[in-house]
Design brief:
Layout lengths: L1 H18 L14 E2 L7 H13 L4 E10 L2 E9 L3 E11 L2 E11 L23 H17 L6 H4 L6 E2 L9 H7 L8 E12 L2 E10 L2 E12 L2 E11 L14
Parallel strand pairs: 1-5, 6-10
Antiparallel strand pairs: 2-3, 3-4, 4-5, 7-8, 8-9, 9-10
Helix pairs in contact: 1-2
Amino acid sequence: MSAERKQWIHDLLKKGIENGDAHAVAVVDESQYVQHNPMTKEGGIGLAELFTQLAKTNPHVEIIRIFSDGDYIFAHTEYDFSSEKICFEVFRFEGDKTVEHWDNLQLKQAPNVSGHSMTDGSTQVTDIALTESNRATINAFVQDVLINKQAHLMLDYMNANKYTEHNPQLSDDIDSLIAALGTADQPATLLYETHHRTLAEGNFVLSVCEGFRMGEHTAFYDLYRLENGKIVEHWDTVETVPPRSVWNNENGKF
């Protein structure tokens, strides 16, 4: 069923946003849909209103990568609706309907100093048999390196000789990540505090974390590609969590 679910989400995002097609929202179970984008109204009606509004901006949607993990479909997308944004979308299914949604958007930025954009790079899913071991590797990496800041363990998880970095502020040199996480001599710009979930298919693993960036409450969505048990490529989006006073639903970002 994963292939069908991927296609349904592809159509929801592509046809719904580009054309304002309310029929694309049929995959949403309006009776129990839980929306975690704080700025979107609850349920399928909220999505239909949003898609109709977005369609007026002559939007373009590119679904760059899409994955399946049990009842979850997660996608790496690029949107152009009045502004260009990079996004991770996560949907949870029950049967043939999606009943829950999370996302994380960031304005598209220029390629980083290593010449990599926020979306280019590998797209092929391989190593399906290694899904669970790759998930475990990323769970450990997030806890040890990102949350606990044990930079000396970085090379236990990363292949520095093959590493490709797509974060617009970092580079292929893993020292740039170490600096962002902070050292005794340099305060951190990235502060990972809570690891909410990990989704995986084969050689790709997405982690969802909460913390602070430059002092602002932030959601971190990090997509990793692994080879032979080591991280060799990374994409992400970071988004400031809006204050509760402006939310359009009460479900929370995470």
